[in-house]
Amino acid sequence: MTVATPRGDVDTPARGGRIRRQHEAAILAAAEQVFARAGFQGATMAEIALAAGLPKSNLHYYFGTKAEVYRAVLAHILRLWLAETDRINADADPREALAHYIEAKMRLTAEHPDASRVFANELLHGAPEIGDYLRNELRLLVADKAAVIEAWIAAGRMAPVDPVHLFISLWALTQTYADFETQVCAVLNRRSLGPADYRRATAHVLNLVLRGCGLASPIPEGESPCST
Amino acid sequence: MTVATPRGDVDTPARGGRIRRQHEAAILAAAEQVFARAGFQGATMAEIALAAGLPKSNLHYYFGTKAEVYRAVLAHILRLWLAETDRINADADPREALAHYIEAKMRLTAEHPDASRVFANELLHGAPEIGDYLRNELRLLVADKAAVIEAWIAAGRMAPVDPVHLFISLWALTQTYADFETQVCAVLNRRSLGPADYRRATAHVLNLVLRGCGLASPIPEGESPCST
DNA sequence: TGAAAACCTGACCATATGGTCAATTTTTTA
DNA sequence: TAAAAAATTGACCATATGGTCAGGTTTTCA
Questions:
Q1: Out of 3.30.470.10, 1.10.10.60, 3.40.50.2300, 3.40.50.300, which CATH number does the structure's domain B18-78 have?
Q2: Low-confidence spans in chain B with pLDDT less than 50
């Protein structure tokens, strides 16, 4: 339940010795992979143990239960997720700020697809673990940034767009490339998404959203043919 | 694997008597709910049976295995999903055609959130059952519609947008309201999404996408205050 | 260097759950 | 209406899996 806010108490490196820190990290990394592929119920401790290169009993030495591992993975992910809104503030240039946010989110998605998938899975199942976080920290953060966007709109610096729905859209547009990679690959006729694909996707989202917000896109689409 | 293309052979009503059709429908409906909430692994036959109002053994009379129930649910969903691209054809007006598609997808999402979630879950886990469908039927359908959009762009009837990525974006923008409803509710500070919320979401997506495609939005945002 | 703390792990258990089956009842149909 | 077909179901089983634990090994540190 209390998944521990980003700087919470679940996986804070501090307690335990050298070995503990190393092995916990290995377990977390393995667990992220496995949870991403199989979901909470589908993941087995045996599988995680195998991926981490440890006997199963050892997992239970570091994490009492599967749920504890899961919570630690989520806490780890939330820390990643929370940063990127810095540049969205009243003084900033709307186009630059939004572009930076989109690029950052897209990079995060490209570099941590498994994290995105674990998060997506948690949401899909009603966010039993991180519901509180969503309704508190995240809601307030979004309300804050929404006010900035409202101000930009009021000042005529961008087209009128519902700011909260805009955030929802940005999350959807970016994370879809990790969460639903299979579908994306299928329609793009690719085996998997490489850097070139992500560059193209980023250009597309920037193009669509910036123009959609009345902020002429500076990036002409279709840089390279992309044949990864 | 072969999940049966929309008019496939898994749940096609044809074989079996009156009772069979009724009970299969009840099971499918119950299963959709349960799979949406818990995913494939998380769902139990006992739970589905309970929701369907039948003893567990009876499920196994109609569907041999859990996987079979799951495949039937997916086949049922694919049939829903496949229709809505009709109006996207060379002769149509881009703005009207896209607006219609967005509205249709949004309605589908609002009316069948559980279906959307089962589908999302399947994708999230690598689409083991519907992968073939995605790589064949869906890919071809999208390639077809993408050509139409290319033609519109070439004719200067809309801004240059990567057509395949545009479809990916449209799916993401609409289905996020069902798949990640928990997160949406959290940041909107709602208990659940009502018709008014969906109206507002639709207006937002239309606004963003149409302007993003260089097709001035005819719908001014923020109709009613929406307090459901 | 020795003892305390941390770490490791194979064997084991309890439970949940998908699936089977044979005996029975209900429905269909000729 | 009789017999064949379809449908029903409680009891039961095999397996997978999360979790325990006692006894052993390694690391730390005064």
A1: 1.10.10.60
A2: 1-14, 219-228
